[in-house]
Amino acid sequence: MHPVNGNLTMQREEIITKINQLLIEEIEIEENLLTPTANLKKDLGIDSLDFVDLFVIIENNFGFKMKAEEMTDVKILQDFYDYIIKRVQPN
Amino acid sequence: MHRVVITGMGIYSVIGKNLDVVKESLYHGKSGIIFDPLRKEMGFRSALTGMVERPSLKGVLDRRLRVGLPVQGEYAYLATLEALKNASIDQDFLDKHDAGILYGNDSSAVPVVESVDILRQKKDTMMIGSGYIFQSMNSTVSMNLSVIFKLKGINFTISGACASGSHAIGIGYLMIRQGLQEIIICGGAQEINPESTASFDALNAFSVRESDPTKASRPFDRDRDGLVPSGGAASIIIESYESALKRHAPIVGEIVGYGFSSNGEHISLPNVEGPAKAMTMALQDAGLKSSEIDYVNAHATSTPAGDLNEAKAILSVFGSSAPLVSSTKSMTGHEMWMGGASEIIYSTLMMQHSFVAPNINFENSDEASDKLNIAHSTTSKEINAYLSNSFGFGGTNSALVVRKFNP
User: Which domain holds residue A80?
Assistant: First the structure.
């Protein structure tokens, strides 16, 4: 797996597809649960240890380090998409 | 005081991944030793090892339950599943009763190496992920299995070097006998990988008979040249007789004696007195005379000094009663942290099926083994009681006595 930032700018839909793929393959969340309004903890079952793994997965796949303080407002999957998109496409 | 019975056994070993296959391997004297080319490439003096396929638990256990589970935990999970099934214990029962776990384990090298490799490469602990901490602790097996099976009783790991599995059963036996627990999953697990055995290989303790792997582990034989590392996991369900009776559980044996001692001498060289003391204590605890033991499952690992001293110790305790003796390590190699538990299973299978497994590769005796009644080949034998030895670095010794259950 290679970081996809840098010269290659990912489109919004590409990023969402990639995030969903990682959540399905790496965190083993069932695909039908991945709706934008799904609560990360309550609906997707992502616990504090899974967030530790997500840190590694995001850096390996998107090339940036997630920061815990930036995640405080990330509650639902759409928040998570928006957070990643903002970091991958800063402009 | 409560009687302590064995109601279930399960195993994942280099001579079979379940009880039925293991029983056949024992009966036919089948070796589980191979030559591992990777170890030679890495610079091992000896590339010999016991080997068993790594389990695939994806789809069996949830990701969160797998992430913190190292390879020996995977072996132990499968061994415990088999043991619980044979003990007629399901998850509903575990949810409603206080069952505990006391497991022998004394290393978890690969997760330590891999996590530090990541740190050295990435220079950021956050890149290590969530699983390695739970994989790398010595208590990894008991901590993981207690979560997987939702256990609510005693829960810790016994690290007693190559006697870990035996001490785990001994401590479990004492707890149940005292009435402190009704059911405990006891066992031992041993990782199989070069990382965990490299520093042991450095001691020149391993056999270098690489041209003939299945002949390399030859306990008590005059021409033995060292042990062969091995691994896997073995679980037994021990419980009070009252508990077993209440739930109409199958009883496969009764633990009646536990003896232990420390040599108080050298860190790696064994002596005669320590093991003899543990065996004597186990017999006294069992209330049995040495002549009432039909079979001794020796610790004998195929090292020159260890086997010699154990043979002398067995002679000093059993004298002319001369029970049949064999070391199943001739087939399995040295299962180290697992061995004390697996050898209870091997011996109990022999007791159930009235045979003594051969001490394979025993072709010529030495001065001490010449005086033992060693089973050269598979021997039909009614076993009413056996004693199993396990010794480890630091001079730790454990002996367990198990007999057929008579209500």
Answer: 12-88
